[in-house]
Amino acid sequence: MSSRLITSLNHPWVKYARSLYRRHARYRERAFLVESPRVIGDALRMGIVPIALFVAAERSDRSVDDLIALARSRQTRLFSVSEPVFAHLSETVTPQGTLAVFSFPDLPVVVPPGETPLVLLIDRVQDPGNLGTLLRSALGAGAHAVYVAPGTTDPFAPKVVRAAAGSHFSLPIRAVRWKSGDALLQGCAQRVAASPYATRPYDEIDWTRPSVLLIGSEAHGLSAAAMAFATEQVVIPLRGALDSLNAAVAGSIILFEAARQRRRAAPR
After folding, report:
1. Which CATH number fits domain 118-265: 3.30.310.50, 3.40.1280.10, 3.40.50.300, 3.30.9.10?
2. pTM summary value
């Protein structure tokens, strides 16, 4: 750890980390913030070394000490900071005393032999919690990649990263530009849009085929470009007075139906 306690908000590394709350700075530096000590520790154990790790000096306990020891073993740049400085660095309601800067992951899209592609395409979802939950569900359901369309909130924004719970380090995340096309997306003949106005139930689809699931925002639905890209639409049948579910819930339900079908079809 840095030999001197950082007490100034104007320290260059403090200013650098703080700048990453702005989207343009994240993409200029190709770096983002992670505040969860569990996620930071998991990344270190995977061999992913942060650019920098900030630790509140007054927060020493067993879990923090273990994280510091792990970071040191990976030769991570460590900074001890005062409580006011850490409060300046953190935007969480109850900061846990550790914050790391990581480079954007550069993960290849890999479809293992014997599997067919399963891709989630997120269109115009603005709520960070919904987007982070969709990333987490996509990883848990075995999606091979997530594509983020224009109009969607930044997947590397701090609130999204917190909700995704470490998914960024294991799940390829790509930006999609409708006019440029993408080989993986175009190679999936089945491109299914979730819509409350569809008539075909989501569990009547054969999700073992190469598939793209398109999820739009609860407020505005899918864009015209996304609907033009889709080959069919499905609905989650609802009872009672509900007419729709939020994007994270709807996407998660359909993703895990796809996972269920693929698990049952896999050779034992």
Report:
1. 3.40.1280.10
2. 0.94
